[in-house]
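Internal ticket - ligand job 520, zinc ion:
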Amino acid sequence: MTNKVRILWGIIGLFAATLISAKASVNTPTQVLFTEQAASADYLLLGVSANGETGAVGLAINQNSAQGLSYLIEASGFTGKAMSTKLIPAPQNSGFKQILLVGLGEPSQNSEVEWQEIGGNAIQKAISEFKTVPTFAAELSPDHAAQLAFGAKLGSYYFDKYKTDSEQQKSVTSITFAVPSPAATKALFNKDWNSVANAIWHTRNISNEPANVIYPESFVTYWKQQLKGLKNVSIRVFDEDDMLDKNMGAIYGVGRGSARPPRMMIVEYMGANKKQAPVVLVGKGITFDTGGISLKNPPNMWNMKFDMSGAASVVGTLYALADRKAKVNVVAIAALAENMPGANAQRPGDVVTSMSGKTIQIRSTDAEGRLVLADGIYYGDITYNPSLLVDVATLTGSASRALGKDYAALFTRHNELAQKFIEVGIKTGDQVWQLPLNDNHFKAIKNDVADIMNSGPTAPGASAGAAFVGSFVREQTPWVHLDIAGVAWNDKATPIKASPGSTSFGIRLLNGYIKRYFEQ
Ligand code: BES
Ligand code: MN
Ligand code: ZN
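stdout (structure tokens):
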């Protein structure tokens, strides 16, 4: 090699190294790769099914080690039960030093969600054991392997970009799976799963970001960046002047107290015939909820940065659909504002006029989510005549207390929709539970000064919130309200989400629902 070539390679190497080291601070999604063989290395992840099978990779290790692998698995007492893992020393001459056994259970019995959890759990164990992810060998069909890989990718998400000590960073660059049919598995993973995983990734990132980084305008910039280059996507943004022009007094009123102006972001994805009525998704996008003049108690206020999770999930869902080129028309509307007390903030007792013409008395400035949704959902309903209208919102502490971390609360005037959502929720892992919405809930928010008020002192909190939002949807429109206050954030780790923080609830559900009922 000449000196010049050497220098050139040096520069390329330096550039590559910078890209890799910059990885943690930008937190790009983990890459998923598929191969057939597991090359010799210090460590290996090895799938073991309940009948003790370890597939082609296990067979090769056994051949090199006089059946040493089978002996060690049996001696360790490992049964291959789903969700179990065990670290064993690798047999001599196997090419590995340590093997993390991953129980696959009875592969034909596992549900989609179980595969995801097995994958995510294994990756988290590997990262805490090895600080890196070795090749994961598993003798699985493309279908099962793709679902496992989806969960593994989600499980490898860590929000560690603000950790300056690299010892504390857990993010990894890639995960490699050794599977019997790598090409078919890769094709399936890329077609059905990777776009959804990336959407979840970007949604978790923006929901975890603090409110000094993500506010209405930067929410818009962030998603414009992510959506750049995707086909058939167009974006419109309303600022305060547009809101005043369109008589959107409800969202405008919430934004008034903040130095960060409100925005409404409208993203259209036209993946099907233009004549087909779109599915419209509307999200609550409060980038920080102090409660406004009706100030919240300080101790738990800090995580009200996630009060924009609904907006992030609806744009995230559209990202997934556009990225996997789904044949469907979808519109995502993010109703964005920061709820702050300030000299210009609205007060309890104020009356505002929404775009629908309905007047609203503000009883609590802390019931702000329904106000931004009022204008967002009305705009979506009358502009698009949707085939389905879904709003997603961290709306009430009441829904969170009722259903905890297991289910989002679902409300609808059209009960047949509830059953369909419940089923898709079970299949995809984003589970929902129906709570009531009846005439009493609508009566409870009637007001003696204005048409309605934003909090009903006598109605149950979550249902009153749903009735308020529903007051801005035409009765014939198929509409579902998802209150995700309890499920959008989890301080505890789960198999598919290691870091405390945003779960990105709603993307698996809405992607799954649209796939089943709307895609051509
Ligand atoms: N963002 C909150 C709801 C919330 C609470 C989400 C806890 C996640 C965890 C919402 O804006 C709110 O403050 N709701 C009030 C409504 C009340 C004033 C009618 C609530 O639920 O207490
Ligand atoms: Mn609030
Ligand atoms: Zn809120």
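Auto-summary: DSSP finds 16 helices and 19 strands in the chain. The radius of gyration is 25 Å.
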